[in-house]
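Hi support team,

I'm filing this because I wasn't sure whether my run with SN-glycerol-3-phosphate finished correctly. The job status page said complete, but I'd like someone to confirm that the output block is well-formed before I use it downstream. Pasting the exact inputs I used:
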Amino acid sequence: MQLFIDSADPIEIENAYRLGLISGVTTNPSLAAKSSQDYPKDIEKILRLIHGPVSIETVATTYEGMVAEGTALSRLNKHVVVKIPCVSEGFMAAKKLSSHNIAVNMTLCFTLNQALLAANAGVLFVSPFLGRLNEIERNSGFELLKKIKQAYSNYNIKTKILAASIRQAEDIETAALIGADICTVPYNILIGLSAHPLTKKGLDKFLTDWKGSGLSLPV
Ligand code: G3P
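And here is everything the job wrote out:
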């Protein structure tokens, strides 16, 4: 399962990329509003840095507007993925953009039917929001992910499942066990993923034993 960062902050994105933690980025209007003063400039920085999918969301509410914004965004860089919400105009726009070989990520997916519509629109990614559902009813986000995985495999659907709205490190493990293709993760969770107290304790002991041994490596 690939990991993406769910952020619009170029500093977070650069750190996560340099640490080798991520292979793509998902942004959304709320993340942009939180971290950006100049969004076009930040997107330019992100696109210069990341050689992998970068989802940028449209903000138009009409079919024509989404197609126009999506087409313009796709021209910024070959790595741009146009993020479109799972609303009726969105599915139409996604179908149109996908028919022109523009990569689309259908976002705000909360039902299997939305995920089926996304697949029928021919999009590259669908993003079920696990955390927002789990907060309403325990594990319902994971249940949705299972249903999408099962239905997509029944029909050999090529749309990739991008698990979003991640709340804790354990959600990533659950998404991987269910079979998400990608998980997009906030920076604060990403940077903690490598740590375990037994790894630290074990390494301290290895190094103490090594220093006391007087041995050297065969290099
Ligand atoms: O970027 C889409 C999604 O991951 C947002 O998650 O934390 O706003 O529920 P959240």
